[in-house]
Amino acid sequence: MKVGLVFGGRSVEHRVSIDSARTVARGLRDAGHAVVPLLIAQDGSWRAPEVGVAVLAGEPSPGGEGDGAPGRSLEILLDAAVDAAFPIVHGTWGEDGTLQGLFEVLDLPYVGAGVTASAVAMDKHLTKAVLERAAIPVVEWATVDARDGFEPDAVLPGAAGPFFVKPTVGGSSVGVEKVDTRSELPAAVERCFAFDDRVLIERGVAGRELECSVLGYRKLEAARLGEIVPGNEFYDYADKYIEDTAGLLVPAELDRELEDRLRRTAVDAFAAIGGHGMARVDFLVEGDERIFVNEINTLPGFPSISTYPKLWEASGVPIDRLVDRLLEVALARHCDRHRLDAGIKDFLASLDS
């Protein structure tokens, strides 16, 4: 199959996306697919495949010197004439439903969650609201909007701290801060407004950080669990991608009952947002058994340090088989979209006749 590997992007996770694309490209080639690297430069312009080849080989990613006209970008995508797209663009304008919407309009099969699930998972406020409605446990939280006043004493009144302050939209822990006292919240929230107009405040949970990889379409499956051992005070952006100080235990040391419960909850959480394809569901475990879904990442990282492919490898699914299965899901969903669209049109035609 001729697969368009779409990577890079405008977000702050541009560099992470390039690292992910190198791993995915190797997996696709090992699985026998032809890879067409389609780089989205930092100014948002799409670049010709030869530029993507050079960046994957280690050349610097271009900045804003290209032709940023939307028509030219669309022409590059269409000229690639790929059978399916494998987007690995992390963050905004990539995993938030916008890129998925483009593929839907072009009727191009693509790997990963659809428009709605991608948008919901990217917004931490919406994710928590949907999960709460589905009776899936989440950490106590509150949202602060830049348009409203902020009264620290009114936020999570039963919690004494520490607190985590996060941009509502974003990934890779960019902009996330941990503060120990309520008096530190206003300054942390103000700094967070530099990343997003809405900010999430969560009660800090002292416990284990566990991650679960989910895969599938009509039937979702969960891999073995992995445990993050932060090298810094918490698992932040530097710890993930710069300092390389975090540890990952694969598989995590868990008793069977707890592991089974976490895997079931990971599947339930992904299903609750309407997900299919792939996701990494992040958990916090407080005490011996109290679990919370922390986040759902519908386009998890694929660098060599990343959890998603490692957990599937530990579950008996190597990277070449993993990307193959993701493409199988993409094609199956694309066929179903056509079938449903045909059903609607047949129904309307029957009314006319």
Overall description:
Strand 8 (207-216) and strand 9 (220-229) form a beta hairpin. By secondary structure, the chain is α+β, with helices and mostly antiparallel strands. Strands 10-9-8-11-12 form a five-stranded antiparallel β-sheet. A four-stranded antiparallel β-sheet has the order 4-7-5-6, with helices on both faces. 39% of the residues lie in helices and 22% in strands. It has helices spanning 14-30, 49-56, 70-80, 98-106, 115-122, 124-133, 185-192, 237-242, 256-272, 307-314, 319-352, and strands at residues 2-8, 34-40, 84-87, 141-145, 163-167, 177-179, 198-203, 207-216, 220-229, 247-249, 277-286, 290-297.
Gist?
The chain is an alpha+beta fold. Helices cover 39% and strands 22% of the residues.
Strand and helix layout:
Blueprint: E1 2-8, H1 14-30, E2 34-40, H2 49-56, H3 70-80, E3 84-87, H4 98-106, H5 115-122, H6 124-133, E4 141-145, E5 163-167, E6 177-179, H7 185-192, E7 198-203, E8 207-216, E9 220-229, H8 237-242, E10 247-249, H9 256-272, E11 277-286, E12 290-297, H10 307-314, H11 319-352
Parallel strand pairs: 1-2, 1-3
Antiparallel strand pairs: 4-7, 5-6, 5-7, 8-9, 8-11, 9-10, 11-12
Cα radius of gyration in angstroms:
21 Å
Strand residues, percent: 15-25%
Helix content range: 25-40%
Inertia-based shape:
globular
* Average pLDDT rating: 91
Could you give a short account of the major beta sheet? Answer: 5 strands, antiparallel
Helical region count? 11
Low-confidence stretches: 238-243
What is the spatial order of strands in the main beta sheet?
10-9-8-11-12
Q: What structural class do you assign from the helix and strand content?
A: alpha+beta
Alpha carbon gap, first and last residue: 41 Å
Q: How many DSSP E strands? A: 12
The SSE order reads EHEHHEHHHEEEHEEEHEHEEHH
